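The data are quoted verbatim for reference:
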Amino acid sequence: MNGKQVYTIEDVARALGVSKTTVSRAISGKGRLSAETRRRVLDFIEAHNFRPNAVARSLAHSRTFNLGLVLPGEEQDIDVAFFHACMLGVSQVASEHDYDVLAVMDGGESTRQIERIIDNHKVDGVIVARSTDHSPVQSILRQRKIPSVIVGCTQDPDMLYVDNRNQEACRDLTALLISRGMRRLALLGGDESYTVNRSRRQGFLEACRQAGLPGEEQLVIMNIDSAKVASAVARSLEQGAECILCTDDYICNLALPQLRELGVRIPEDVKVASFYDNTLLEHVLPSVTSLRFDAVELGRAACRELLNLLEGREAHSRVLPAYQMVLRDSTK
């Protein structure tokens, strides 16, 4: 290409009069090889700007240089901006270290896809984009001893995780709204088997208790989906909610049309906030007060810890400290 020689391992071996195995050993640093021979191979590679292709590289290192990224299989969840941003962060760090990312869908009770890529040795390690209770995927990864990192807190001591300060951030936003005179709050939340939803609920209840508002007197409705959101919104209004808080942008985007359909004015009749932000909440009218986390950095951090595992470096579970409370028109 452009008049330049493109070298393969065979070309390097032929030019130096050595075997392909010798070249592979020099590249990988593994196997018995004299220092002089290794130096000759590496000098030739440097002089000719040789880069082994992915297959040769994986054979030389006994790796695939692929990372698996397990995304939620539910149609509505895959559209959530968080997973797109998290995937971008994972892909950025993987690319920086010459790894590729293989997306895998979480099939719920079915683990056929993740087992297939493990059995066929298609990945060196796996990042799971959402932490859930009793996850069959996480069980498979633990049983097979596959290097793994979970995005979201997990109680499994054998699994590394990277998470945001969800409980603390939700507590702080709830406390701020209470300090502005709101005493009757409703929390509309998603699936309680997701650890992030439980963390956000705990932050909400903690702020209520600290403000002298017993949590049992606040309206908390969890496990909401598109079929249940209308009744949850109606119940919140019937019980006099001054502010409706949603555990994430997905739930908030379901609740807003219901409020409009009922003729409820935001923020005049009821205020609305979300425990997770996205661009839709910023540009809807009125714009919605939210918590902003850096999902791209969360994905990057998860990928860095997985690469630490794969490279034999020290790896740790981490909680990212940064978040923002973005105050918008919906709570004025």
